[in-house]
Amino acid sequence: SQEVVSEESEEESNGVNLMEFSDEILLHILSYVPCTDLVLNVRRTCRKLATLCLDKSLTHTVLLQKDYKVNKDKVKQLMRDIGKEIYQLNMAGCYWLPSSTIDHVTRCKNLVKLNLSGCHVTSLRLSKMLSTLQHLCSLAIDVNPGFDASQLSSECKATLSRVLELKQTLYTPSYGVVPCCTSLEKLLLYFEILDRSREGFMLSGQLMVGESNVPHYQNLRIFYARLAPGYVNQEVVRLYLAVLSDRTPENLHAFLISAPGSFAETGATKNLLDSMARNVRLDALQLPKAWINGSGLLQHLKFNNPFYFSFSRCTLSGGHLIQRVINGGKDLKSLTSLNLSGCVHCLAPESLFRKAEDDIDSSILESLVVSCCNLRHLNLSAAHHHSSESIGNHLCQLLSRLKHLLSLALPVCSITDVAASVEKPPTTPNLVPQTFGRKVRIGIQTYPRNSGDQANQKIESSVFWALMGSLRFLETLEIIGSSFSSAMPRNEPAIRNSLPPCVRAQSVGDSEVAAISQLTYLQSLTLAQLPNILTGSGLVNIGVQCQHLRTLSLANLGMMGKVVYMSALMDMLKHCKCLRDLRLEQPYFCAGAQFFQALSHCSSLQRLCIVSRSGTLQSDAVMSFMANCLEVIMCHMFMGESLTVCKNLQQSIVRSFQAERPALNVVIFPLLHEDLTEVIRDVPMRHLDEITLFKSRVAEEPPNLWW
């Protein structure tokens, strides 16, 4: 035993001491450690680290937005120790911190940028805090019911008058602090106002008395508004736009309005658009579909060096896209992000007599690819983009030329080989009606557990396989069925029926999923409505090869009456050591002991969401999983269990783990219960927007819209 000890001590003496690294290397290493750990823990280990942890490069910007372990006491101590050294503070989405925590921000006298989106801030607290932040240039806040601008002090308004960038999330009809921000250059507005109060009363979009102050837009360069569903949000945003229609800012170069459903154009908005066509040159544009459809607006708007376009859900034809936006093939190397989601005719020369399922015109896509060769984010989802049989003109072959792509969203029917979809007869599962009954019994082959057998099943000559091989640096991929709709929409009851998949998508299955495993740097993957998944074997390939995968969303894979890919999914999860977010939406999903045992291998997992009509869960398995996975702070399950079972499990989780996990958010509720929408409204916006609700997120917003 003495010999063993001497050998170990000799190895330690010959090993590399971390403290022998240069300060530059150590600072780079320390930059990956959360600031709270650096200041409150690491710097107390030795004198050298005590000095390095307080280096300006580490304390200049403090990011707490996803530090789920931070609590009020840690924030208080952090502000005491380095408050004067902080110039940028991001506390976005820290919903679990009490409102009194904001009081400690007053110690950060030199703050230039402050993000408090998702934090509880009252009018009085906001006034007290902003009164001390005389250097503030960028601010993000929420405006909740009860907000009263008359409570803002003169010192607070003086600070707001110097703010150049404002991001404001509205939960009540209000101008918020916009009228006080007289120097605004960037304004981001998120409208999350519900049409009904908790008591069931209809809300009005008219602003409260005393809030009729006119916003100041004369210096505005960027205007962005995102609306949640509801007529009240539309009413309120029109009040914000009314000032713009009177006088369009001369320096405006980005005008973006994201509105779901129908948002009709009015005389005021028409005047605004006409004024923009005459007076400004834009670099980014997004408009509600009703403002573009059937109008010649795009023909008159002028663009400078555009970096972002979104024509989501518009009836814009490919001919108009090329002629009016790309100017017949104009060089658009500046364009880095393009959203054509739901733009069903965007790859066809005209839309008047065309059916949505007709083949695309490959020459239009080719012109797009050639002109916009530097695209990094492209969304073509929610449409039928069917390639013709012409050799070399398949959509996947043309997209493979975009070597700079970082994120891509495609409909399932667009990735199939034309010959395969025409010549291959439907496989056995596709002959079965897409029902939800438990009585469906189809024999399926067991997926090959041997990687060599899996490799033999890959169709390496397919166009999709070649596309994945050419986009080696892709970080985000979404393959979504053109007719897919989530069972859990925003402000409505759960959808009980789903549309069948596109005929062209019937052959897309395991081999196409296996092709995705070529994306070594993949971080986020969404697969929805792939009807020909037989075993899910391709998922295992992804788990093994894509070691950077952080976000995984799977919905309605294979036949609907049975979860045919469960075995493969469990094997996949054993390899996903970096996975942080997992969303599963599948009828009859059984969240049992075996599933949670496999999921426990995902040691980095933070958020879990399961949506399953007639799905079942085992309470003991869930509790054991929560005990084993210490990083999990969000557990959302919308299943087929009874309300009593769901409530008991939710209470047990909160009672057992809330104390040691301050950010813990648990919602377990029957999916088809009539009160689901009331439960959803209490979910923190960060989780609701990022994982709980299903949507395509590629090119949803311009890149780097907010810091």
TrEMBL record:
Encoding gene per record: Fbxl18
F-box domain boundaries: 15-62
Domain of life of the native organism: Eukaryota
Native source organism of the sequence: Pardalotus punctatus
Pfam family, one: LRR_FBXL18
PANTHER family: F-BOX AND LEUCINE-RICH REPEAT PROTEIN 18, F-BOX/TPR REPEAT PROTEIN POF3
Cited SUPFAM superfamilies: F-box domain, RNI-like
One CC-aspect GO term: SCF ubiquitin ligase complex
InterPro entries given in the database record: F-box-like_dom_sf, F-box_dom, FBXL18_F-box, FBXL18_LRR, LRR_dom_sf
GO biological process, one term: SCF-dependent proteasomal ubiquitin-dependent protein catabolic process
CDD domains per record: F-box_FBXL18
Name of the protein in question: FXL18 protein
